[in-house]
Amino acid sequence: MSLLVVGTVALDTVETPHGDVADALGGSATFFSYAASFFTPVRLIAVIGEDFPHAHRDLLEARGVDTSGLIVQPGGRTFRWRGKYEGDMNSAQTLETQLNVLTNFDPTLPESHAQTPYVFLANIDPNIQLKVLRQAKRKRLAVADTMNFWIETERDALLKLWREIDGVVLNDGEARLVTQEVNLVKAGRKILDMGPRFVIIKKGEHGSMFLSATDTFTLPAFPMSEVVDPTGAGDSFAGGIMGYLAATGRLDSEGFKRAMAFGTVVASFNVEDFSLRRFQRTELAEIERRFRHYQEMLAIQE
Questions:
Q1: What percent of the chain shows pLDDT beyond 90?
Q2: Which domain holds residue 276?
Q3: How confident is the model at residue 205 (pLDDT cuts 50, 70, 90)?
Q4: pLDDT of residue 302
């Protein structure tokens, strides 16, 4: 079934020990959309400026991503992020952020998009996330991401959103920040008390954790010998999860476990090159082969 995502589409300038790129296609909704499109049709809601390269839009459309909700702000400049990774590359050093068109982003869903049953609110202002959520008329599953900045500056809006969604995806540092708990199991349970039915905590190279009222489980990261650029890995992970869930409609415990395994595998492709370059060389059959390898590694049962 169709999947709706609202978030950022950006131009990224990134430096890692393996090289650098300038004005590469990035943004939370971009990585999410491309990753999810391996499994299911995706409808994208975001804003860009007139400076956004046509080739980037063509790249998304070639994957079947519906970009009719990609708003071009007249005279505006696209959101830009510049960052650097060093050492183990587990976290980025942000060197510059230019919000540009994001400062006035106020999305209204087309009627077709409002009927989408699976909704993902990628990392963006929780006030915008909540506005989009309330326009979704036939949602079966609604999940949101966030980041430290929103936890620190828009906590009330964030918690209001969490009372209206099914699931939260966030990283370990964000989980600890929002709950003031060091232990991630305790942090996850506190987040459940804040409203969502389940929480997925990303732990970078240490994998991920799922918690709900009835289930708690962890999955390791896919072992990688070399990481070129981790930008967008978390968004790709979420895209793989939601893409699988939307494609299968399987929302039981085993369905979430398999979805997170696919998300892990999809994210492992993303980090092998800058921007969407590795994804552009990836086919679903290759994802499925790596998934089977991951199954064998974990002894996941059919």
A1: 93
A2: 3-298
A3: confident
A4: 61
The whole-angstrom separation of Cα 110 and Cα 154 is 27
78: domain CATH number is: 3.40.1190.20
What is the pairing mode between strands 216-219 and 208-212? antiparallel
CA 223 to each of CA 59, 114, 227, 295: distance values in angstroms, whole numbers, following the listed order: 28, 39, 10, 13
What is the pLDDT averaged over residues 140-151?
96
Quick check: pTM over 0.85?
A: yes
Q: Which two tokens stand for residue 298?
A: 């974990």
Instruction: Return the pLDDT at 72.
Output: 96
Pairing of strands 80-84, 66-73: unpaired
Identify the CA nearest to 109 among candidates 98, 121, 99, 101: 121
- pLDDT at residue 298, rounded to an integer: 84
Q: How many CA atoms lie within 13 A of 52 on its CB side?
A: 30
How far apart CA 260 and CA 170 sit, in angstroms, is 13
pLDDT tens digits, 218-260: 999 999 988 999 999 999 999 999 999 999 999 999 999 999 9
Helix (H), strand (E), coil (C) string for the chain:
CCEEEECCCEEEEEEECCEEEEEEEECHHHHHHHHHCCCCCEEEEEEEECCCCHHHHHHHHHCCCEEEEEEEECCCCCCEEEEECCCCCCCCEEEEEECHHHHHCCCCCCHHHHCCCEEEECCCCHHHHHHHHHHCCCCCEEEEECCHHHHHHCHHHHHHHHCCCCEEEEEHHHHHHHHCCCCHHHHHHHHHHCCCCEEEEECHHHCEEEEECCCEEEECCCCCCCCCCCCCHHHHHHHHHHHHHHHHCCCCHHHHHHHHHHHHHHHHHHCCCCCCHHHHCCCHHHHHHHHHHHHHHHCCCC
Count of domains observed in the chain = 1
